Amino acid sequence: MTISTVNYYSDITSTTSTSTTSTTSDDDRTSIDSDEFLMLMVEQLQNQNPTDPTDTSEYISQMVDYASYETQSEISDQLSSITDTLASLMNSQGLGYLGQTVEAVGNTTSIQDGEAEWSYTLESEAESVTVNILDEDGNTVFSETGETDEGSHSFTWDGVTSSGEQLEDGGLYTIEVEAQDADGNDVSGYTTVIAEVTAVDTTSDEAVLGIGDSSVLLDDVLAVVAAQ
């Protein structure tokens, strides 16, 4: 089995949103406020049939129902506002990651300053581990044996292919880890990417951090890695 945790998202681009504001006139209103409601009730009481008056308790019940509805509507509006504020706050927090080196769940990253860095975790000890690096077209450009102990292992690639070619910074490169135990059974695990955040996109519901030509979700960040 190949240990691989997909993380690549669409490229970060600048977007411009346009909002349209509509104005509703008094003639188009479909609701009334509490003051208007009370005025209508008083008017109705003053003009009711004196020989067949409306039950007072019914009016009180109507007033209670309306008050309850108005309160629920106000609470709903307030909760919606709070939700929008929290979403905006969460997205804006991504801006604080600019220039920071983060570790995030995923398998695809870019070469930065002449190297690309990942980590892979084995859930049990393996007999053999092979680490493959694939380019954007899925071609294996580098392979070597990896550490077999249970737990987390860092893996840094200097951008040199198996044929000796030095690749430039940028591009998309994916790690795949093939791990088997002594009986030839697959060993489970997952991968992470370790890279510097070079861009932040907060235009969608989920903030996306750019790491070179690749990207990760803000929610997938596991840690900020201290500079060596």
Automatic annotation (TrEMBL):
Domain FlgD/Vpr Ig-like stretches: 107-182
Biological processes per GO annotation: bacterial-type flagellum organization
Keyword ATP-binding: no
Family named by the database record: Belongs to the FlgD family.
Gene3D superfamilies in UniProt: 2.30.30.910, 2.60.40.4070
InterPro entries noted in UniProt: FlgD, FlgD/Vpr_Ig-like
Keywords from the UniProt entry: Bacterial flagellum biogenesis, Cell projection, Cilium, Flagellum
Native source species: Roseibium polysiphoniae
Function: Required for flagellar hook formation. May act as a scaffolding protein.
Entry protein name: Basal-body rod modification protein FlgD
